[in-house]
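Worked example (supplementary).
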Amino acid sequence: MEKLLYDFFCRDTIVVAEALLGKILIYHSSDGDIGGRIIETEAYLGENDEACHTCRGKTPKNAAMFGTAGRNYLYRSYGIHLCYNITTDIPGMPSAVLLRSLEPLFGLEIMAKRRPKAEISRYCAGPGNLTKALGLDISLNDSSLLESDSLLAIYDDGYQAVEIVSKPRIGISKAQDLPLRFYLPGFSSLSRK
DNA sequence: GATTGGATCGCCT
DNA sequence: GGCGATCCAATCG
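After joint prediction of all chains, the assembly is encoded as:
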């Protein structure tokens, strides 16, 4: 599989959010490789997007989004969950793509330990479930996806998306009308339809 | 210095 | 479909 590099992520955030659908996310963890196919994303468009964490400027928490494209942005949500994003776009555009769900493909036995009561199709369904199933940690925040030894990486295995659906983003209180959630219809691991 | 409010989830009825 | 869990910087006073 071909690892995706800077040129893939250094593009318009909406383009990247759609292009990531069908790609493979792998966490090369100390427990082994774990991951799957990306089937649901959301685009957060930087300082002009009221729903994006960078809309009020740079803070210690959101600093990763002000870095170059192809970096990991993780933050705690509702005090409980972690959400995992990948930074996008050219320097000066602090934007990112939220990964909302994966079709599990690698490390299913590890996921099973982390999601003991869930069905396989629900292991990575939703941003909080995804980070829990993979075992991602806040310490991965602001690390790179692009280094040859990076723990997280995105790969292209040649899969071609047949159809992409766009809908309003989930769970936000501002800019609720923008259709910036993208998913591959038909997958049982979607957080919702 | 205290309050607030989330890019959620799973269990309960 | 309602609610409690639980974090922490930004915001307000």
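Two points are worth noting when inspecting this output. The mean pLDDT of chain A is 95. Residues 42, 44, 51-53, 75, 77-81, 83, 85, 98, 100, 117-118, 126-129, 132, 169-173, 191 of chain A lie near DNA strand B (CB under 10 Å from a C1').
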